[in-house]
Design goal:
The chain has about 140 residues and is mainly alpha-helical. It has 6 helices and 4 strands. It has a two-stranded antiparallel ribbon. It has a two-stranded antiparallel ribbon with strand order 3-4. Helix 3 (about 55-70) packs across helix 4 (about 80-85). The protein is flat.
Length: about 140
């Protein structure tokens, strides 16, 4: 499974192919948990990032909040409608079952990101909790 540490090198190799990623490190920084911090230091943070192959609708909602936060989306957003049209949970469940993997029963879940709990049922409240955002 993708979340297992023993599979991280293979994942890094697959996602760093030029058609998917073209950055200098080929995406290994996030997967290996070792990265340059932009200040001349190399950090090694074992719990920095994780990989979950399931297309969580709640993650799609979070991505939309960030797009709205930085001005890529304006006005009212029907987060659930967009998330459910873009993240194909039914297909993922089917393919996971073919691989004998257990898919989550629900596609919306709370999670922590950027030090804050994200509740997909309250995306605008989460968005409003940030002092830093694109100037209007």
């Amino acid at each position: 499974m993708a979340r297992e540490a023993r599979n991280r090198q293979l994942i890094a190799e697959v996602i760093s192919r030029p058609i998917i990623l073209t950055s200098g490190d080929g995406g290994r920084a996030g997967v290996d948990r070792k990265y340059a911090d932009g200040l001349g230091n190399v950090k090694n943070v074992p719990d920095r990032a994780d990989f979950d192959p399931f297309p969580w609708h709640s993650m799609a909602v979070w991505i939309l909040t960030q797009m709205k936060r930085w001005g890529y989306i304006k006005g009212e957003v029907d987060y659930r409608q967009i998330a459910e049209k873009v993240f194909m949970v039914t297909d993922a469940r089917k393919h996971m079952a073919e691989l004998e993997m257990k898919a989550p029963a629900r596609s919306y879940a709370k999670f922590k990101v950027m030090g804050k709990e994200f509740d997909p049922a309250k995306p605008d409240a989460y968005l409003a909790s940030f002092a830093i955002r694109k100037a209007a």
